[in-house]
Design brief:
Elements lengths: L15 E3 L2 E4 L2 E4 L20 E5 L5 E8 L2 E6 L6 E7 L2 E9 L5 E4 L3 E3 L2 E4 L2 E4 L4 E4 L6 E4 L5 E3 L8 E3 L10
Parallel strand pairs: 15-16
Antiparallel strand pairs: 1-2, 2-3, 4-5, 5-6, 7-8, 8-9, 10-11, 11-12, 13-14, 14-15
Length: 174
């Protein structure tokens, strides 16, 4: 129970134990409590395979971070296990986004969705600038809601409050 001083490399083929830590080959294990990794600089996880796996108590992989075609991929490895994005809002933990893997990755937001000038909140769709166009297909029918209040169905230039235009032999309805 003294101090060991080594001026060179120390080889310990049976592993090294320091307090509750055991270093043996490629494994660093802690026998009890939490492990803290504290660095004066950054913490880098560098895997030659490009895969960083998350395991739980010897029960196998539950998630992975990988590099796929130059992009970051985050994957839940458990069948039908959802992915949650959580944060703290005014001191309370919230789930901001749930990706439901049992429903093909359906996204459920806890609040509104904002993209550019468009906001979706509960049952309300708000366009803050310009016209709102609802398309049924890339080249098919559409509904245009002009900022001025006119509604066009089948036309991109509604001339009245409700302007309906069809391509069939029926006449235009205004």
């Amino acid at each position: 129970s003294g101090t060991v001083v080594a001026g060179g490399v120390v080889t310990a083929n049976a592993g090294v134990v320091v307090d509750n830590f055991t270093l043996d080959g490629t494994t660093l294990a802690l026998s009890s409590g939490n492990m803290t990794l504290d660095s004066a600089g950054g913490v880098i996880l560098d895997a030659a395979t490009g895969v960083i796996s998350l395991h739980e108590a010897g029960n196998g992989v539950f998630g992975t971070f990988t590099r796929a075609s130059g992009s970051l991929a985050i994957k839940s490895e458990v069948s039908n296990a959802d992915i949650f994005f959580k944060g703290v809002d005014d001191g309370s933990t919230i789930t901001a986004l749930t990706l439901d893997m049992s429903d093909g990755g359906a996204a459920t937001f806890s609040s509104k969705i904002q993209t550019g000038n468009l906001t979706v909140e509960h049952t309300q769709l708000t366009q803050s600038v310009g016209n709102l166009k609802l398309l049924t297909s890339a080249s098919g029918g559409h509904i245009l809601l002009e900022a001025a209040g006119n509604v066009g169905i089948g036309t991109t230039v509604p001339a009245t409050n409700l302007h309906v235009s069809t391509t069939s032999s029926h006449s235009e309805i205004r």
